[in-house]
Amino acid sequence: MDVASRLDACKHRWQLGDERPLGGGLASAVFACTTAAGNEVVVKLPATGRQARAEAAALTAWERTRAAVQLLDTDFTQGALLLVRIRPGTHLRGNGDTAATEIAAGLLTRLHQAPAGGFPFPDLPQIYLRAEQRSREDACYERRVSGDSTLGEAGLARLGDARSAAERLCASTQRTVLLHGDFLDKNLLSDGSSYLAIDPIPCIGDPCSDAGFFAAGHPPATGILHRAAAIAALMRLDRHRARRWAAIWAVLQT
């Protein structure tokens, strides 16, 4: 079913109006809507039903942490999620590294403490292989559209080493948690008093992976390893493992 038909069905089920597309979604169609009572909500239509169910299960697991956006309802026939709209909804800024590190560590600590529940989330090695494949595809696309056959060369040359390192870390972790999986500035929104996580790609794995993922994606790039260690220290995680995960994720981004 196409997005327009799915959205119409959701509007009818939840009695929504005033729909407006929201930008920023890569694998999902996202719309701001208003309920009959005048409340602002978001309808998210992930690309697949599996993605919708996994995100719903993660948000349900995190409900009591108050560290993630609130899930109001689901319609798995349409592969749809009904979410509270976060206002003002500004992203975590790329500057102010000390504050960002503290915010990230605080949110991750709360998210990682929540039991995963009974949903069969994929494990981190599965998600990692998908991310690596996406990095290869992105590099091919960027080279094609730019005409620069050397674009991303440094990262591509190190993908094999990064995968080996990721495999060793996954095999040696002493603790696994429900990971956010896409813990970036753009997925941390302010509600006016604190930040909430949105748009997870949830999986089960090493908690240092989320810490390293954020460190690799938050500017400036010159602070990646220091940032990873700082987050790990605040979370009482292994700093060395967090730094290694940060380096791995930085390779994929490169």
Please give a structural write-up.
- This protein has 254 residues and is an alpha+beta fold.
- It is globular and about 50 Å long.
- The mean pLDDT is 96.
- Helices cover 48% and strands 17% of the residues.
- A five-stranded antiparallel β-sheet has the order 1-2-3-5-4, sandwiched between helices. The chain has a two-stranded antiparallel ribbon with strand order 6-9. A two-stranded antiparallel sheet has the order 7-8.
- The protein folds into two domains: 3-84, Phosphorylase Kinase, domain 1 (2-Layer Sandwich); 97-253, Aminoglycoside phosphotransferase (APH), C-terminal lobe (Aminoglycoside 3'-phosphotransferase, Chain: A, domain 2).
- A hairpin with a 6-residue loop joins β1 and β2 (28-35).
For the structure shown, list the relevant keywords:
two-stranded antiparallel sheet, 254 residues, 5-stranded antiparallel sheet, Aminoglycoside 3'-phosphotransferase, Chain: A, domain 2, 9 strands, 2 domains, Phosphorylase Kinase, domain 1, alpha+beta, globular, 17% strand, single chain
**Radius of gyration over C-alpha positions, nearest whole angstrom:** 19 Å
CATH topology of the largest domain: Aminoglycoside 3'-phosphotransferase, Chain: A, domain 2
- The sequence of SSEs as H and E is HEEEHEEHHHHEEEEHHH
Using the alpha-carbon principal axes, give the shape: globular
